[in-house]
Write a structure and sequence with these properties.
By secondary structure, this protein is mainly α. It has one domain: Cytochrome c-like domain (Cytochrome Bc1 Complex, Chain D, domain 2). About 45% of the residues lie in helices and about 0% in strands.
């Protein structure tokens, strides 16, 4: 692994896009550009600098303005969303 490169896990970006549009878009915007102050903006990539395992934990447990998705989304679905977000940056 290269220094400064986040650890990436495999997920389904197509399914992740569907889930993102249902669960995340209202705060994080259609293309990952946040629509609310203080919400992670994925359009520039700063929100994706962490390893997938760290992002998974944040989405699962929530914190700050971020609601917890434990019990709403399976870990595999959360990884699908993370994969989708990483594909947006390419």
């Amino acid at each position: 692994m290269l220094i400064g490169t986040p650890q990436v896990m495999a997920g389904d970006p197509v399914n992740g896009g569907k889930i993102y549009n249902q669960q995340c878009k209202k705060c994080h915007g259609a293309n990952g550009k946040s629509v609310l102050p203080g919400v992670a903006d994925f359009s520039r990539g700063e929100g994706l600098l962490k390893a997938d395992s760290e992002l998974l934990k944040k989405i699962r447990n929530g914190g700050g303005m971020m609601p917890a998705y434990r019990g709403t989304l399976k870990d595999s679905e959360i990884l699908d969303v993370i994969t989708y977000l990483r594909k947006l940056r390419r």
